[in-house]
Amino acid sequence: MRIGAIAIALMAATPLIAQTPVTDEAPADATLPTGMDSASRMTVPVMVNGQGPFNFVIDTGADRTVVSRELAQRLALPQGGTAKLHAMGGSSEVRLVKIDRLDVSNRTARHIKAAALPYRYVGADGLLGIDSLKGQRIIIDFKAGTMTLQPSQSPEADMADGGDVIVVTAKTRLGQLVLVDADANGQKVWVVVDTGAQNSVGNTQLRKLMLARDPRTQITPIEMVDVLGQRTPADYTIVNKLRIGGILMGNAAIAFADAHPFKLFELQKKPSMLLGMESLKSFQRVSVDFAAKKIKFLLPAGIAPASDRLAAGERHAPAGSP
Questions:
Q1: What is the DSSP letter of 118?
Q2: How far is it, in rounded angstroms, from Cα 306 to Cα 72?
Q3: 3-59 residue pLDDT tens
Q4: Contacts for 158 with CB less than 8 Å, ≥ 6 apart
Q5: What are phi and psi of 209, to 5 degrees?
Q6: Which tens digits make up the pLDDT trace of 212-228?
Q7: Do residues 201 and 276 make contact, with C-beta atoms less than 8 angstroms apart?
Q8: H or E element that contains 77
Q9: What is the C-alpha separation between 5 and 226, in angstroms, rounded?
Q10: Nearest one of 145, 245, 239 to 200, comparing CA atoms
Q11: How far apart are CA 45 and CA 305, in angstroms?
Q12: Alpha carbons 88 and 254: distance in angstroms, whole number
């Protein structure tokens, strides 16, 4: 079984690609309609040097924006040197291109050096990384099909919409938010929210501990393909119960692999996972605030928080699986 682009998480470690672009702050909230790419990841319309719009995947697991090589050629983007890029299967030296201006609704990021990678591996015109969303709070509304950008320093709009809001505080590692109050089938796990991943990916340490708890767990071999075209073998299974903060999800799909990001985050010895879109879509809304180090999950109407459901004797609420 092969799953293309099951997880895309780009992290750049070299000073060249880690340059910070200048971002024009906009006081008003910006709400954009979202679409879906072939891997069921959310996309938003993006203008590049005044041209477009083009479909970019919202990727909270990427600290750098990426453009497809085909789009870079079409727009005649100038070369910007090279840098080492980290992806799911490992790292590689890649070509950079210069983008003078990148517009996401009324937000503008300037002077970006983006990696140019083949469309067949990116899966869209580009990936919208954290660098292009600097200083913003990202609110993804799955029910409404929108993404809202708010300045991190402004009060967050009320998320109460007939459901309960769960707030989870995170730590940071290499610019990524890592949730530590989580467990899978009762096993403590470190979680990175990655909207650029189609499915969730757990490391081999988590796999070992979970299989020890339940040897009857059914495993299916698959292959993951990242944005660099690197292929990573993985074991695919369904986790009966995944808890994140005060949230319980059931039937969560996870692919276990000795993936490169866990080593990069220094999480290879800790039970850890990248939480992908298939699990995130179980919620009505997800708010990611890198400045405040908080992630808010809006539960669907009629689904109570974990503490209430456990008190009533319910083990978990259903979550999506492929």
A1: -
A2: 46
A3: 433 333 343 433 333 344 444 444 478 888 888 877 778 889 999 999 999 999 888
A4: none
A5: -70, -40
A6: 777 777 888 988 888 88
A7: yes
A8: none
A9: 6
A10: 239
A11: 34
A12: 15
